[in-house]
User: Fold these one by one.
Assistant:
Number 1:
Amino acid sequence: MPNTVVIGMQWGDEGKGKIVDLLCPAFDAVVRFQGGNNAGHTVKFGDRHFALHLVPSGVLHPGKKCVLGNGMVIHPASLFEELSGLVAAGVEVEGRLWISRRAHVILPQHIELDAARERARGGDAIGTTARGIGPAYEAKAGRYGLRVRDLSAHGLERLVEVALEVIGPQLEHLGTETAGPGETVAICRDWAARLDPYLGDVEELLNDWIDAGESLLFEGAQGTLLDLDHGTYPYVTSSSASVGGAATGTGVPPSRLDGVLGVLKAYTTRVGGGPFPTELAGGAGELLRERGNEFGTTTGRPRRCGWFDAVVARHTRRINGVDAIALTKLDVLDDLDEILVCTGYRLGGRVVRGLPSSLEELATAEPVYRRLPGWRETTVGTLDHDRLPARARAYVAAVEEEVGAPVALISSGPRREETVVRELPVVGRLVPGGAAGIRAHRDAAV
Ligand code: GDP
Ligand code: IMO
Ligand code: MG
């Protein structure tokens, strides 16, 4: 039974939440492996609407097992708030959420440091979500971080002291006052008690479940261009948002990962700072933002918008070994006369097709565009590839050709039930039950 990884192929917000929610009935468990509550994954079906940040999108399917892996950074207070919201909305969580004891904790001081640093950077700010993600991963790599299991350790006081010895002076330097060790220890103890029911030996459990023939769906957060190694550094997040993270962030070895579904928006968006070669200033960008409702799920910030960038998508197809693509938000392009796809960058006198590692080159790259005619009719809610306008099918084919992977799913609206599921052999390799199974879940009454 396949274990499949869902990965964002751009700068995040590709629609991963929607795709994971659609696919997860075919799997036994849904696993987050990196990031924290910087993520905002929207799931809609019928008239229901959920925004998930730390909890896997599988939680909306009764009985589905949900796991937070060791590669994540968890701010317990935000987790409790999210869980209460789910319970208030009638979602039963008890008994089906497992949190790795090895996951790292976001302390209040990490959040303060994230915000203070961004203020100090002024015009060079990364544009972080201010959730303390960078400082928490920094503490992990610097070996002064606290893991979930440490919150209930006898040596908690000393661990907090060591952490604050590093962070305290940085906060002081930036003019921010913070809680002392005593207060921080009290917060940690409260968190420990409330986290306790969810803690598990996740690394063992996941491998045991695979041994028993179960299938796991790995839910990526952020996107490959925000990956610490493979993204547009330093305008990235601090985790491994590409496929490698699914192994290091869970304890499931790469040899047990069977395939990768890459999620690609039919155009490009980015929140925060950093280079974005196909960004559209003014009218056209505004139109995409409005039609696509491109405002952050986590921070509410307007997302920067631009044309589809095949240089980016080819890079992330390769880095992740993407087997098939879920192409989202095709309907947002419905009204356009002409649609552009960037196929390469002009740099100086030459055209390159690979993604430059240099920030300066990315900032000055001039996109080379292939122009396609728009279809100028609605695709909202389309369920069959054959029913898409011919020009929309031609656009999908152009994406496949430029990126080098088949488009297996086409999202035609924000809701679970608004998705084209194509009858391709790769779907059966990635998802138990194949295309017919996904369609059955898609069409089930909600
Ligand atoms: P994620 O972070 O990758 O899960 O994506 P987000 O949920 O942050 O952002 C995607 C946004 O697009 C959400 O508001 C979704 O409801 C919406 N969305 C997803 N797929 C489609 C689609 O095919 N069409 C339209 N119009 N909206 C979509
Ligand atoms: P999902 O999972 C889009 C961006 C921030 C900023 C950079 C670093 O919903 O796709 P961080 O707070 O992580 O240190 O910020 O990364 N960013 C996201 N952009 N979608 C996300 O998550 C993001 N998570 C972080 O805007 O540019
Ligand atoms: Mg998002």
Note: The two ends are 27 Å apart (CA to CA).
Number 2:
Amino acid sequence: MLSKVIQDALNEQVRIEGESSQVYLAMASWAEIQPGIDNVTSFFYRHSDEERMHMLKLVHFINERGGFAVIPSLPQPQLTYPSLKNAFQQLLKHELFVSESINKLVDIALQHKDYATHNFLQWYVTEQIEEEALARTLNDKLELIGDDKGGLYLFDRDILSVSVMGGSE
Ligand code: FEO
């Protein structure tokens, strides 16, 4: 049975994962109306789906352990971006924020000696390592490309092969 403190902390993470899904869905919709970045668009849509999966995993865990998962209302995310580079910078920033929040959750689980929750959260810890690494790689690539159109073409082509995000359920 989940304690109230753990349940509330997990529900806060449900909100954060739901919000992440919305943020990346907005990035996808913005990318879809930009010329020549079809694969980047698919990447954002896929990423949004994966964040929803992260949220659902938490929802099931809370409910299966005798708690109640609260489906949150969400603020409207940023709708447009000054550049693709800026969108990916924000993606990295957002993932760093999510990692911090997961780490806090792990801490709370340990403080309250909830080892089942602690064990469950390890999947998220591993996932965040992958997501941060990928976001950094993509930011580094965009930094190198600068304003080079050919580089952007290759970036869009190569992002097709990126499948690390959330791929290890
Ligand atoms: Fe579920 Fe990308 O954090």
Note: Residues 17, 20, 51, 54, 95, 98, 131 surround MU-OXO-diiron (CB under 6 Å).
